[in-house]
Amino acid sequence: MDKPTHLVEFETMxxxxxxxxxxxxxxAGHLDRSAYIVLCRLQMQGPMSVGELSDAFGxxxxxxxxxxxxxxxxxxxxxIPDPEGGMARKFRIADEGERRLDEERAYNIxxxxxxxxxxxxxxxxxxxxFLERFNTDIERIDRRPWPRP
Length: 149
Fold this sequence. Notes:
The protein has helices spanning 5-18, 33-45, 50-57, 61-73, 95-115, 121-142; strands spanning 77-80, 90-93. The chain is mostly helical. It has a domain at 29-115: Arc Repressor Mutant, subunit A, CATH 1.10.10.10. It has a two-stranded antiparallel sheet. Helix 2 (33-45) packs across helix 5 (95-115) and helix 3 crosses helix 4. The protein is globular.
């Protein structure tokens, strides 16, 4: 193939290494990566069951049970009856989860603004567009689309 795919592989490896997200913060109060992602999904999609989360993330229900149990103990999510009357109980983001998610997102955006300070608004928009295209292509192949605002 004549595409420089190896360059994309290298740069995505480095991107994961840099850790611009809250995982680089130390001390109490930060969300781990899995909690951040689950909270983002619940905020965008609304209440979801363990099975729906398992399907959305492609993870074992046992993995999601561990994650949701820890998140419930931390007061980030709560279990509720299915708002649509189904049998399965669902998880929704709790007030504390909303607050902590907003704090993490603000931190992440601030970190990105520091990195992208010298970029023009057009360059940032173009980069965001390429990232969205990259992610939606992965989601299409994986058959697990992520809701977008």
